């Protein structure tokens, strides 16, 4: 029992132990099963699908792999997966087979992207040798990832990368080929990249040399070193543009510097040569100012509108023409407002629908070409309006006042009609020949002279053909060629030609070929038939008068000599009677004798004057020339006339200049001429008057002036002063001195000089005697 009890106890203990152990194993198995289920669930939800390939090629993989491969079930062997008709493309299948073989035999890991045949799914396969816990040696474990999205993204990134690479290459080439200096600074503001233009600008060897030595293009930028100036752009985070002077190729130029902050990448910059631009802008400003100054001087009204249709320029003529106030224009009014102002001043044409008309004029701004209009204003002003659209969208308006032009045009038309009527009514025959010799214009008198029909002239014949066809109508037909040559010379040489032609019917014409300013020639013909006859008669009469004048001169000379003999006897006997040779005479007889002597002296002087005049006219007046000192000559004249002037209480003033000098002259004849002038002055000057005798000279001659403050002479008397015939008539009226002035002029002219007078009624008379020096001998010889 004890033994049985012990056995039972052992059995019970063993049973309890077994039960406890079983329960533990059960709990452990249950736990491991739960772990396996969790691992299986985790594996099923993993982004990768495992595939175990055993050494014999058998495949172990989850069922969901079939869905990825587009198959109803997972292939059993590798050959089904990588065969030519398998799940992947041929190239991917072959490469994957090689990778798996390398992993099985060479224990190499691999990674490859493959594309599932017939779909857009891409799988990333990562393989490695399988551990001994999974399979026998020679097995491989593959992890397949669905890389469709990532591969698509990768392909997109590769394409974008290629495009960016190409763009970068193009941009780099563009920067390198750019004609303006460009550079890049890193975050520490050191130069890291420059282009060839930069290298040339700083005259460096290469870009590496520039970067290595940190050669700056500018000395300073706004007073700061270039890196510090770039820091300002980087700190502000905005693009900075500045104009900075720089020395390029030994020449100082203005450069526009632009620096662009790029955040952590640094600062990029470039420089634009603005020297030519600034010069061009300055020149343009000067040109615009000059043009506006010129436009301001124009008589035509000019107004310019900008792209915004506001008034930007106007000249003085614009303000004046349209009666505008400058204060209304300084605010740059718009185009429509300016038209309104012009309408208020009644300086635009009247229209029923003014807004529509104004709207149409607004189209000037967008017109393809210039427009031109004519405006007739209410006050009769005619304006020519020229509208020129500008390239910048503006408009230039030019207003030309054509009123005077139109009036002149009307007057010209009237003048042309008057000229045509006048030309047709001329007594002379006139024809205008063009430069090519063709008859261009003619009047009725021209046609009548030549006796041709209007149709002949209307054909505009050439001068050669015209004269040849009418040569038989001339008194001497060869004269037709002379007329042709004269007309040709007038047209070519531009010289006036004259001549005379006679017609076979007895008519005679004077003709003239006159060059006109337009290159044509005017041919005029004047009928001188009657005047020629009269001229012939007058010529005969003139010859007869000349012969009679010779007879008269000879008669006067002979008469003078014949009268001198009895006059001398009368004077001599009268002197003897006055001296008492005939006895003592009573007082009355003494007065008679004195009168006889005075009359004889006057008559003798008149006879001498007439004789001198006739001899001078005949050219036989004797002249004895010798050196004459004019100063002594004038002093003697003063002494001779001192008594006569004192008797009449006339003041005699003598002014002898040192330049008077000497002349070659006949002293007796010159005394005679000067005395005639003094005699005339004493005769006309009233008591208490004044006579001035003045002399001066120059190298070539001397001048004697006799002036008085007498009553003077009117224009008619001055014209007759030196006319011996009119003076002889004065002598007949009792003026015994009537021939004195003509004789004085004749004597002065016989010396090669001139005698002139200036006189005004009530202002006196001035006689001026101009005498040449002559061939004077040197002093001392």
How would you describe the overall organization of this protein?
It is an enzyme of class 2 (transferase). The strands form 6 sheets. This protein has a 5-stranded antiparallel sheet with strand order 2-1-5-4-3, sandwiched between helices. The termini are far apart. The protein is built from 25 helices and 27 strands. The protein has 7 domains: 1-39; 46-146, PAS domain (Beta-Lactamase, 2-Layer Sandwich); 178-273, PAS domain (Beta-Lactamase, 2-Layer Sandwich); 298-403, 2-Layer Sandwich (Beta-Lactamase), CATH 3.30.450; 426-527, PAS domain (Beta-Lactamase, 2-Layer Sandwich); 537-620, Helix Hairpins (Orthogonal Bundle); 622-772, Heat Shock Protein 90 (2-Layer Sandwich), CATH 3.30.565. Residues 727-737 have low confidence and may be disordered. Helix 18 (529-579) runs antiparallel to helix 19 and helix 22 packs antiparallel against helix 25. With 781 residues, the protein is an alpha+beta fold. It is 48% helix and 22% strand.
Layout: helices, strands, pairs:
Blueprint: H1 2-45, E1 48-53, E2 59-60, H2 64-69, H3 78-82, H4 90-106, E3 110-115, E4 122-129, E5 140-146, H5 148-177, E6 182-185, E7 191-194, H6 196-201, H7 207-213, H8 226-236, E8 240-248, E9 251-261, E10 267-273, H9 275-297, E11 301-305, E12 311-314, H10 316-321, H11 335-344, H12 354-362, E13 371-376, E14 382-389, E15 395-401, H13 403-425, E16 429-433, E17 439-442, H14 444-450, H15 454-458, H16 463-469, H17 479-493, E18 497-502, E19 508-515, E20 521-527, H18 529-579, H19 587-618, E21 626-629, H20 630-640, H21 642-647, E22 651-656, E23 662-665, H22 667-684, E24 690-697, E25 701-708, H23 715-720, H24 724-732, H25 740-750, E26 754-760, E27 764-772
Helix pairs in contact: 16-17, 18-19, 19-25, 22-25
């Amino acid at each position: 029992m004890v033994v049985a009890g012990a056995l039972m106890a052992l059995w019970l203990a063993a049973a309890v132990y077994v039960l406890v152990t079983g329960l533990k194993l059960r709990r452990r198995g249950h736990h491991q099963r739960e772990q396996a289920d969790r691992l299986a669930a985790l594996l099923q939800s993993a982004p990768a699908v495992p595939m175990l390939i055993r050494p014999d090629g058998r495949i172990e993989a989850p069922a969901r792999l079939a869905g990825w491969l587009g198959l109803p079930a997972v292939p059993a062997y590798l050959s089904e997966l990588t065969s030519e008709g398998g799940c992947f493309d041929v190239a991917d299948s072959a490469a994957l087979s090689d990778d798996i073989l390398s992993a099985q035999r060479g224990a190499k890991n691999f990674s490859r992207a493959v594309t599932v045949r017939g779909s857009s799914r891409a799988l990333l396969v990562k393989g490695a040798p399988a551990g001994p816990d999974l399979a026998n040696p020679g097995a491989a474990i593959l992890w397949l990832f669905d890389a469709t999205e990532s591969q698509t993204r990768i392909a997109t990134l590769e394409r974008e990368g290629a495009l960016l690479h190409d763009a970068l290459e193009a941009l780099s080439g563009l920067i390198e080929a750019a004609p303006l200096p460009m550079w890049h600074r890193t975050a520490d503001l050191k130069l890291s990249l420059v282009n060839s233009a930069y290298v040339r600008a700083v005259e460096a060897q290469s870009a590496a040399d520039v970067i290595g030595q940190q050669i700056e293009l500018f000395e300073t930028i706004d007073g700061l070193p270039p890196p510090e100036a770039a820091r300002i752009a980087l700190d502000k985070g905005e693009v900075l543009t500045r104009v900075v002077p720089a020395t390029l190729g030994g020449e100082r130029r203005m450069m526009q510097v632009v620096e662009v902050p790029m955040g952590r990448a640094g600062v990029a910059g470039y420089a634009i040569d603005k020297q030519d631009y600034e010069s061009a802008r300055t020149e343009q400003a000067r040109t615009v100012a000059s043009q506006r100054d010129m436009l301001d001087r124009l008589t035509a009204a000019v107004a310019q509108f900008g792209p915004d249709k506001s008034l930007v320029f106007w000249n003085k003529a614009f303000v004046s023409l349209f009666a505008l106030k400058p204060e209304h224009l300084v605010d740059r009014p718009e185009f429509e407002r300016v038209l309104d102002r012009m309408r208020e001043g009644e300086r635009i044409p009247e229209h029923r629908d003014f807004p529509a008309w104004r709207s149409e004029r607004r189209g000037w701004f967008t017109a393809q070409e210039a427009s031109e209009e004519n405006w007739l204003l209410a006050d009769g002003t005619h304006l020519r309006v020229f509208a020129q659209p500008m390239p910048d969208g503006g408009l230039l308006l030019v207003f030309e006042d054509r009123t005077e032009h139109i009036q002149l045009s009307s007057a010209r038309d009237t003048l042309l009609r008057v000229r045509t009527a006048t030309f047709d009514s001329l007594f002379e025959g006139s024809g205008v020949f063009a430069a090519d010799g063709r008859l261009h214009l003619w009047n009725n008198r021209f046609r009548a002279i030549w006796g041709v029909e209007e149709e002949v002239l209307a054909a505009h014949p050439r001068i050669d053909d015209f004269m040849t066809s009418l040569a038989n109508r001339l008194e001497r037909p060869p004269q037709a060629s002379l007329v042709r040559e004269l007309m040709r010379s007038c047209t070519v040489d531009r010289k006036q030609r004259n001549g005379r032609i006679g017609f076979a019917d007895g008519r005679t014409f004077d003709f003239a070929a006159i060059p006109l300013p337009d290159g044509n020639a005017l041919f005029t013909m004047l009928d001188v038939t009657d005047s020629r006859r009269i001229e012939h008669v007058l010529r005969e009469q003139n010859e007869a008068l000349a012969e009679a004048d010779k007879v008269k001169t000879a008669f006067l000379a002979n008469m003078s000599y014949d009268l001198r003999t009895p006059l001398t006897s009368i004077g001599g006997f009268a002197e003897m009677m006055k001296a008492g040779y005939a006895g003592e005479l009573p007082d009355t007889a003494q007065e008679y004798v004195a009168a006889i002597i005075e009359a004889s002296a006057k008559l003798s002087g008149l006879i001498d004057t007439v004789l001198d005049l006739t001899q001078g006219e005949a050219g036989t007046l004797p002249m004895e020339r010798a050196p004459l000192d004019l100063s002594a000559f004038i002093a003697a004249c003063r002494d001779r006339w001192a008594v006569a002037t004192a008797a009449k209480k006339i003041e005699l003033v003598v002014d002898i200049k040192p330049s008077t000098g000497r002349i070659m002259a006949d002293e007796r004849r010159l005394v005679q001429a000067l005395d005639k002038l003094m005699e005339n002055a004493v005769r006309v000057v009233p008591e208490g008057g004044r006579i001035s005798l003045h002399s001066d000279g120059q190298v070539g001659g001397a001048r004697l002036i006799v002036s008085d403050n007498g009553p003077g002479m009117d224009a008619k008397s001055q014209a007759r002063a030196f006319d011996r015939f009119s003076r002889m008539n004065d002598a007949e009226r009792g003026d015994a001195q009537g021939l004195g002035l003509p004789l004085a002029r004749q004597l002065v002219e016989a010396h090669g000089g001139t005698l002139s007078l200036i006189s005004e009624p009530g202002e006196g008379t001035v006689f001026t005697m101009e005498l040449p020096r002559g061939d004077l001998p040197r002093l001392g010889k």
